[in-house]
Amino acid sequence: MTPIALATLRARWVTFVSTFVALTLSVALVSAMGLMLGATFNLPERGAERFNTAPAVVYATDVTWDPALHDPGTRSLAAAKGVDKDLVTTLQGQGRTVVDRSFYAQVSGQRTRPGLAPLGHGWSVAEFGGYTLAAGRAPNAADEIATGGATVGQSVTVLTAEESRTYTVVGVTKAVGFEQAVFFADAEAARLSPRVEAVVSFAPVDTLRSTVGEKALVLTGDDRHRADPSLAGDRDAIDNTETLLPITASVAGFVSIFVVASTFAFAVVQRRREVALLRTVGATPKQVRRMLLAEAGLLGTVASLLGCVLGYIAAPLMTDWWIRLGISPEWFSVDGSFSFWVWGPLVGAFVVGLTVALLGVWAASLRAARVRPVDALREAAADTGGMTRGRLVTGLVGLTIGLVAVALVGFVAPDLVLIPNAYVPILLVPILALALLAPVAVGPIVKLLTWPLGRLKGAGAMLVREGTLSATRRTAATAAPVLLTLGLSLSLLGATETVNEARDTALRSEVKADYVVYPDGTPGVSRAVVDRIKAVPGVDVIAPIMTMLYIEEPEGLDENDGQAVEPSELAKTVELPVAEGSLADLTDDTVVVPDLWGKDLGETLNIQMGDGTRVSLKVVAIVKATPGNDIAYLSMKYADTAKYARTGLARRAQIKVHADADRGAVDAALKQAIGGSGARLWAASEWVGNETAEARKINSLRQQVVLGIVVLFCFIAIVNTLMMATADRRRDLAVLRLTGATPSQALRVFAAESLLVCAVGFTLAALAALVNLIGLRFALTALFGSTPIVVPWGPVALIGAVSVLLALLGTVLPAALALRTPSVELAGVRE
């Protein structure tokens, strides 16, 4: 049957061009996203930076620690403790060693540069990172520093986690590309940070490894990069890409595969008259199936190859787009070499494309080949049996799964709505299920939508109505891309805006403060700044210092986020949703935990702090929390250990002004207190607005990427499908012309049918979105309280309008071109 397949491809080129384009673009999309995904597993390797010339580095870390499971900037307990002091003493007895103490330090007024961490070190470690002096000398006294961007003899204020202090610049260092360093005398660095980050040793490596054992890692060669701050910085920079790319790739890939499979199946359905003739002249069902599969195989092979080429070209362009949007770091790129991370995704995309083409045709060919020769001619005359048993069962199962998933999200696991990688696929299920069930819904929806037109004079309304009802397969196939386009837009945009609104409301209700002090060009607010704010009369201040709680469990340490706060200030400045207990009971020996931890009121937790100190804290209150915000509260007594697990800085300080205080005097005193501290004073309402705007900006970028790619493909599918459907209706055009319709009247009938198809797609999209948004409403109510559904009707209306416009173009243009052929010839010519 291969020669027949080749001949058919030449004869029905219009239909096959549409399926070819759909498959090519689908494979291009899948391969491009696959290449980008592969690039996240094959990030460019940097050489050693801070210890570039060090022979060996002893570095404390936990090899089982997975940074992907924790916030950027957090450390495992082993890394928090640093290199054990007894081990340092032992190493110093084996020959020359240099101790590195790494901690937050920043010259006041010098803003952090993107990707460069502001860090302090002792001067003795500078040589290993390639630091050289452009002017001056090395610091020797406790009040001396060497740094870049300053002048010799200048007095500057240096901010650290605990204090701000004046130092004299005695040396100016040349800039390096991996950190923004301030160098102190070694003794002063030891005072500021007792923790030892790493030890450079000149002892033989074998001896060194034997001495260190399991207490730390001995890094040599390129492994020394593990001790560089840029390693954590790179993970932080690529975090948005690694989070967003899988969900974008999965949704875009799934939608494109669904559209392509539907397009191929529709192409087979359009050819039922040819199949009828083949069966009549003696072709067996097996021969029909072989012919259709041969066509799909030939078309799929060429289209998949071309799609892989286009995807290879498009991947760098898409990567540049992500960089411009601010999602990916500037150094992120797709590997241009032909490594596994390049040919692997390309081969995978080719296999997916060819498989989808064959499966899309196979399912439809089974039904076409099973029809008896006599029935085949009867089947070719009408198109009313659009739903096969397999499609019906699949659609019903999918709809059931979608409803169950939405119900589970709404009533059992509401926190899933805050995890895009888990929630977006759930939104997709009802939409795809209704697309499968579309042939069943076409009749009732068309009758409902055209009922008001029944009283209109003329035959136009009747022709549109009956023409649509008599071709349920065609209507369902052409409505599916419209359904996907608007259904995803309504569900995704509505879900994003509604979640944003719920979070904004929760943040506004949580903040009781009048002012917020927020970092400005620094990674946090130091305790010295907080102490100056506390000295202002007439205010209460809370400045939580982020830390880690390493809770001892039978199965090992459970690492969780915590905040060290002043117990007396907690309830005054922050409104926390307490489920059990009381915030007033927070003391040096107690802790407030989120309900997501699964702890009981009154339970005692055995905890190790960042410096290894063991404490036992009793749970005195349990607060309601959401994923990503499941933080415990403990006394500020433990703030000194926070710099071991994190930076030791506060994210922000919230200030509540006493009712009897002079607001004007307080405002002036606060501005004076934070002057030159790398912080900014905000009115609480202004800060909340800025904070929510930043969150919305990130979510908006996610919308643009996911929805932009999917909607663009759906737009192409709308045009493709309608062009296929219209090209197959030349006989219908001829009948209209031969019965007296003018060309403009015929085009109006076809355009009206196209609008009706769009209306069917919009109706099904609204039903799918309604199911999704109702489930979302219940979920957010459980998480945040009563939450209204917010739909950005402007973008949704624009997407709908473009869908309608493309549908009209995909219908009217092929019909107008066909009308240029004489009606008699048109009636006798299929292609």
Automatic annotation (TrEMBL):
Keywords: Cell membrane, Membrane, Transmembrane, Transmembrane helix
Membrane disposition: Multi-pass membrane protein
InterPro entries: ABC3_permease_C (IPR003838), Macrolide_Exporter_MacB (IPR050250)
MF GO annotations: transmembrane transporter activity
A Pfam family annotated for this UniProt entry: FtsX
TM annotation in the entry: 244-269, 296-318, 338-362, 392-413, 425-446, 705-727, 747-767, 797-819
Record flagged with keyword DNA repair: no
Compartment(s) of residence: Cell membrane
Listed GO CC annotations: plasma membrane
UniProt main location, coarse: membrane
Residue ranges occupied by any ABC3 transporter permease C-terminal domain in the UniProt entry: 250-371, 706-821
Family the entry assigns: Belongs to the ABC-4 integral membrane protein family.
PANTHER family from the UniProt entry: ABC TRANSPORTER PERMEASE YTRF (PTHR30572:SF4), MEMBRANE COMPONENT OF TRANSPORTER-RELATED (PTHR30572)
Protein name: Putative ABC transport system permease protein
